[in-house]
Amino acid sequence: MPFSLVFTSDTHVPKRARDLPHALWSAIDAADVVVHAGDWVDVALLDRIEQRARRLVAVYGNNDHGRLRERLPEVARAELEGLRVAVVHETGDRKGREARCAVRFPDADLLVFGHSHIPWDTTAGTGLRLLNPGSPTDRRRQPHGTFVTAVAADGALHDVTFHPVPR
């Protein structure tokens, strides 16, 4: 049975925004699984997403400390409808990212990461798909914030959609 997924990262609530965008909350409420690739900043957001999400797969980021690091791992793994997913906040420089991550995560089909706030969707030579949902609250040099929805079915990721978040 397919799983509906929401991917987000670098939410930085309440430092960069008072709350998540309404569209992202709606996607979280509708999804079977929410994946967050770190930089929550405040444990209150983790509590709120845990209350609303059917299932949460999440890690801490470089801006997460204290209780967030106590409750979240640096790397998370899950199998979703045969799709082997790994989640980490940082992957290093964009140059050589695919090859470097393929070596680091040889047993994953999909690596979800954050940190750069730059939406990213590529595939390494080994078949590892790398996905960065961007940030829904801190677009930095991007034209708008983003989050991603997708479907996991039959060991693959389908219907990947980057959703723009208005300023």
UniProtKB/TrEMBL annotation:
Keyword Metal-binding: yes
Keywords: Metal-binding
Ranges where the Calcineurin-like phosphoesterase domain occurs: 5-150
Signal sequence residues: none
GO molecular function, one term: hydrolase activity
Cofactor: a divalent metal cation
InterPro entries on file: Calcineurin-like_PHP_lpxH, Metallo-depent_PP-like, Phosphodiesterase_MJ0936/Vps29
UniProt keyword Metal-binding, yes or no: yes
SUPFAM superfamilies: Metallo-dependent phosphatases
Enzyme Commission code: 3.1.4.-
Family of this protein: Belongs to the metallophosphoesterase superfamily. YfcE family.
PANTHER family according to UniProt: VACUOLAR SORTING PROTEIN VPS29 (PTHR11124)
Protein name: Phosphoesterase
Native source species: Geodermatophilus ruber
